[in-house]
Design a protein that fits this description.
With 343 residues, the chain is of the alpha/beta class. It has 3 domains: 132 residues, NadA-like (Rossmann fold), CATH 3.40.50; 82 residues, Rossmann fold, CATH 3.40.50; 78 residues, Rossmann fold (3-Layer(aba) Sandwich). It is 44% helix and 14% strand. It contains 15 helices and 12 strands. A 4-stranded parallel β-sheet has the order 2-1-3-4, sandwiched between helices. α1 packs across α2, α2 runs parallel beside α14 and α4 runs parallel beside α5. It starts with 14 loop residues before the first helix and ends in a 6-residue tail after the last helix.
């Protein structure tokens, strides 16, 4: 389908655009600065039009900026949950606002749909920390030991693995195998956390998320010193000494549920900082202390790039059928054990 590329006039903050986006602007008051709204609103309005034209659905990870997460996303959440929900829609096109391995997972679960990522440079330090060849070498070094792979990996790595896991079901998956030892890839910190929760020996791969590994215990103690009644919740991709300082450790979905259910007066979410902005929009009674480690890869995705993706149908993500089939088996084995939210 050929579509006209919008002109500068199409992307002006006209009275019509103001009217169409007013309710959203009011809902995001205090989350998106008022001065920024005239910049974002024309893109939001145009993207909404193109979604209908393309029969497209936008999936946004929790680490996307608020104008994407609240402004244009149809489905929001963690990497595996996005792929699962995208597969359940009647949309012909999925625009994945996240990083490349998430788009691959969406394609694995929706092979009949067109899956687009707005920027091919949206990678992931954790996914890039291991290759399929690395997994094959690990299996040769530890024959007969099953490989448990975090969903934050490429399709190639999933395809070489026995079973996948998420940050919330990793312990359950490890123990479901009924073995004394497992190879756990690629996140060393999530693996170390799992090792504290089970008697199964964990053979680690030394990968890490560049966002979570930058947090320090001293930083957490500094937040507590400045705000004595602060509740600290942390993602298990953080180093062990950081998790030791936290009041709660859990996946991104677990952290969101913690805030929604307990409504702590003041909370620090030790994870990518856009997530705090997004959760704050849904929990106005909670004051968020925002440690801000940004993911440079997630921030490659912007409203202009999403618009360009829908206009040009770029950039399509493909996974070789054999790789997709093998990766799908590892994901399905995890789902057969029990559901968990990822990333």
């Amino acid at each position: 389908m050929s579509l006209a590329i919008p002109t500068r006039q199409d992307l002006e903050y006209t009275p019509e655009v103001e009217r169409r986006t007013r309710a959203l602007r009011e809902r995001l008051e205090g989350i998106i600065p008022e001065v920024e709204w005239p910049i974002h609103a024309p893109y939001i309005a145009r993207i909404e039009e193109l979604k209908r034209t393309r029969n497209a659905v936008i999936l946004a990870h929790n680490y996307q900026t608020p104008e994407i997460f609240h402004g244009v996303a149809d489905i929001r959440g963690d990497s595996l949950g996005l792929a699962q929900e995208g597969a359940r829609t009647d949309a012909e096109v999925i625009v994945l606002c996240g990083v490349h391995f998430m788009a691959e997972t969406a394609k694995i679960l929706s092979p009949e749909k067109t899956v687009l990522i707005p920027d091919l440079k949206a990678g992931c330090s954790l996914a890039d920390a291991i290759t399929g060849e690395d997994v094959r070498r690990l299996k040769a070094r530890h024959p007969g030991v099953p490989v448990v792979t975090y969903v934050n990996t490429s399709a190639e790595v999933k395809a070489e693995s026995d079973i996948c896991c998420t940050s919330s079901n990793a312990v359950q998956v490890v123990e479901s195998l009924g073995v004394d030892r497992v190879i756990f890839t690629p996140d060393q910190y999530l693996g170390k956390y799992v090792a504290t929760q089970t008697d199964v020996e964990i053979i680690l791969w030394e990968g890490a998320c560049e966002v979570h590994e930058r947090f320090t215990a001293d930083e957490i103690r500094g937040f507590r010193s400045a705000t004595p009644d602060l509740v600290v919740i942390a993602h298990p991709e953080c180093p062990p000494e950081v998790l030791d300082e936290a009041d709660y450790v859990g996946s991104t979905a677990g952290m969101i549920n913690f805030v929604q259910e307990r409504q702590p007066p003041k909370v620090a979410m030790i994870t990518e900082c856009s997530m705090s902005d997004n959760v704050a929009a849904e929990n106005p009674a909670v004051e968020f202390i925002r440690p801000c480690n940004l993911c440079p890869h997630m921030k490659q995705i912007t409203l202009p790039k999403i618009l360009h993706s829908l206009e040009t149908m770029n950039y399509p993500v493909e996974v070789a059928p054999e790789t997709a089939a093998r990766a799908r088996v590892a994901v399905q084995r995890m789902l057969d054990v029990g559901r968990g939210s990822g990333g």
